User: What shape does this take?
Amino acid sequence: MKILFVCTGNICRSPMAEGILRDKLEKLNIPAEVDSAGFEEFHAGDEPDERAILTTRKRRIDITGHRGRLFTTNDFDRFDRIYFMDSYHYYQLSMFSRDENDLKKTDYLMNIVYPGRNLPVSDPWYDGMTAFEKVYEQLDKACEILARSLKTNDQDYGRKK
Ligand code: 4NP
Assistant: This one.
């Protein structure tokens, strides 16, 4: 199973999600590939935002090895599932997609927790640490369910129907 998280800059939300899910998969001994990417190039090649590093470090998760990268059409071929954070990313994915099968791989990350509600993980970039804490809690909830669904081989869990 190969999972990709996407967000705007690939320095806050999606690298945090990547680190959180990877940590859970390691603890559960589940082999899966996890990566993240963004749609805006301002931070391509950059380390994660300092506040994202601090928020995850508090939980002993190290995301400092990550470097921002842009989403490419090829990611639709490389990954089984692509989770996005808000409606802007769905718009971007729909522009990159070549057919319905590409888009079928995508879903709002928070639909794993609240199916069908299309709730966002809001951009914390302009806000303070409180926003990053809230983002962490949202991501952790979704990744916990996702990791357990992979453990039980519930391949359909969290996938858009
Ligand atoms: P992310 O947050 O999409 O969660 O990585 C952002 C990071 C940078 C910007 C916007 C959102 N930016 O405008 O530079």
Summary: Residues 129-151 form the longest helix (23 residues). Residues 7-13, 38, 42-43, 123, 125 surround 4-nitrophenyl phosphate (CB under 6 Å). The chain is about 40% helix and 10% strand. The chain has a mean pLDDT of 95.
